[in-house]
Amino acid sequence: MSAAIEFKLTTPDELTDLLDAIEAFGEAQDLPVRTVMTLNLVLEELVTNAINYGSGPGGAVVNVWAELRDARVYGCVRDNGVAFNPLEHRAPNIEASIEDRPIGGLGLHIVREMAQNLDYQRVGAENVLKFQLSVQEG
């Protein structure tokens, strides 16, 4: 059996509504708190990047989808922004001191560490990033 949630955002202010919807989805599906927190963090990073850095000509439109199926969460973030493959973005040197590190990239690093089976495609005028999360007990 599967359960899914879909959400559309056009402004950063709607991010809180998305996170609330993910919390409600997790509660309705009896997901472990750790899984819900991971899903929230991954989606917050991806959506924030899409809205703040990749807005299309008419402003950002970000569609989020997540589905619980077979003890895994399958997620997808689609946006109308400029082409950007986050999987090609170089990982930050987390061993370097704060002073020596360039600004940015840590959020994408966190997403790559927390999510599995990341897949990016440019489909027409949209960025499409799919990912999976294991349902984590605890």
Automatic annotation (TrEMBL):
Q: Which InterPro entries match?
A: Anti-sigma-factor_SerPK (IPR050267), HATPase_C_sf (IPR036890), HATPase_dom (IPR003594)
Keyword annotations? ATP-binding, Kinase, Nucleotide-binding, Serine/threonine-protein kinase, Transferase
The coiled-coil segments of this chain are none
Q: What is this protein called?
A: ATP-binding protein
Domain Histidine kinase/HSP90-like ATPase, which positions?
Answer: 11-132
Could you tell me one molecular function GO term of this UniProt entry? protein serine/threonine kinase activity
| A Pfam family recorded for this sequence | HATPase_c_2
